[in-house]
Amino acid sequence: MANENGILIFGELNKDNTIKPVVKELVTKARSLKEKIWNQRIMVCIVGPRINYNNIVHELGRCGADEVVIVCDNRLTEYDSNYTPELFTQIAQKYPPRIILIGATTNGKEVASYTATKLETGLTADCTNLDIGENNLLLSTRPTFGGQLTADILCRTFPQMATVQENTFKIEETDHFVNAIFNWIDIDKIEKKIEIIKAKEKINHSRDLSTSKIIIAGGKGACKDNGFALIYQLAQKMNAAVGGSREAYEHGYITKSQQIGQTGKTVTPELYIAVGISGANQHLTSIKNSGKIIAINKDRNAPIFKQADIGIVGDLFEVLPNLIEKFDIVNKEENNE
Q1: Domains: count for the chain
Q2: Same domain assignment for residues 40 and 176
Q3: C-alpha 299: how far from its chain's center?
Q4: Residue 212 to residue 273: CA distance in whole angstroms
Q5: Do residues 96 and 235 share a domain?
Q6: What is the pLDDT of the chain when averaged over all its residues?
Q7: What is the extent of the structural domain holding 283?
Q8: Is the previous residue joined to 159 through a cis bond, with omega within 30 degrees of 0?
Q9: Would residue 204 count as lying in a domain?
Q10: Among 17-26, 70-79, 325-334, which range has the highest average pLDDT?
Q11: 239: phi > 0 → left, psi -120 to 50 → alpha, else beta; which?
């Protein structure tokens, strides 16, 4: 039987203890969902250190959160696989929700799978849209069959759970009162199964895809010769971030953090340049909210052209050097003025 205590969202924090944008995206989307299921309350659960959460609470309130439940301990200065998933699950058990929404980040996926297992419920992963379907059940949309199709999935177990890709929904603010609730949970009673011996941050020399206004992404067509070398050269000229498709990641041309698509990131730059990307549905879904899309592909029938604002039919090994040369000429002229 469904529990009617609202929508619970995992309030994941960044390393600097600010709230991740995907949390505010989910709160915004939850506002439209709750109107369809008897105006249920939106609750965000934050697991973190003992700090001042006033600004975060107000941020979430402006997005539409009704309550922010905070579980804090000085040992939770960073995400901890031993504690964070279990603490979030305990809150889900204390305030049983109808729906649980979690950002499809690395940590969010771990929390989601742990919580779903403990609560013995279903989980729809990497969603690109959410709605309320028949019998007031959560309707989750996600890519399937390698991104060739999208599937609408009704969750018939409770709580209904879904993870959602970052940059999927637009953040919209509203004038809304929010209530903060602090919960004390003795984490000493939680069994510690994982011990981190040493942590080393991987250095990524590319700009952050989530904050870059311009992204140049390479696909299968760029995975040969000096394809990505040209992409990086052009990106440097344009102050752009470099991304790529699943093929580019699997061939070692980009890191996981640079992958765009169903199993990578959803991006929303002002300008997206797709180089040698055919345009499978899983990729198109992940770039649909970009401002402008420019596609470069020698196959004039490539699906990417249907979504592109500007299409260049040509060999990227001819097009990119010409673009780089044009930028060099423009920069030289500007320096001489």
Answers
A1: 2
A2: yes
A3: 30
A4: 13
A5: no
A6: 89
A7: 214-336
A8: yes
A9: no
A10: 17-26
A11: left
* pTM, to two decimals: 0.80
**Domain harbouring 240, CATH code:** 3.40.50.1220
Among candidate residues 156, 189, 222, the one where a domain is terminated: 189
Helices vs. strands in the chain: H and E counts, helices first: 9, 15
Q: Which of 86, 25, 111, 89 is nearest to 60 (CA)?
A: 25
Place of tokens 């498709």: 245
Is 197 part of a structural domain of the chain?
no
**Residue 210 binned pLDDT confidence (cut-offs 50, 70, 90):** confident
- CATH number of the domain enclosing 77: 3.40.50.620
pLDDT of 135 above 90? no
Give residue 130's identity as a one-letter amino acid code: L
Identify the residue with better confidence: 241 or 188: 241
Q: What letter represents residue 314's amino acid?
A: G
In the numeric block, the tokens 């995907």 are attached to 22
Q: Could you give the CA distance from residue 218 to residue 247 in angstroms, rounded to a whole number? A: 9
For residue 316, give the nearest of 256, 207, 261, 234 by alpha carbon: 234
Q: Say yes or no: 178 and 311 in one domain.
A: no
Residue 67, SS3 per DSSP? strand
What pLDDT is stored for residue 1 in this prediction?
34
Provide the pLDDT for residue 331. 66
| 222-227 contacts at long range (C-beta below 8 A, 24 or more positions apart) | 222/248, 222/253, 222/275, 222/276, 222/316, 223/247, 223/248, 223/251, 223/253, 223/276, 225/317, 226/317, 227/253, 227/275, 227/276, 227/316, 227/317
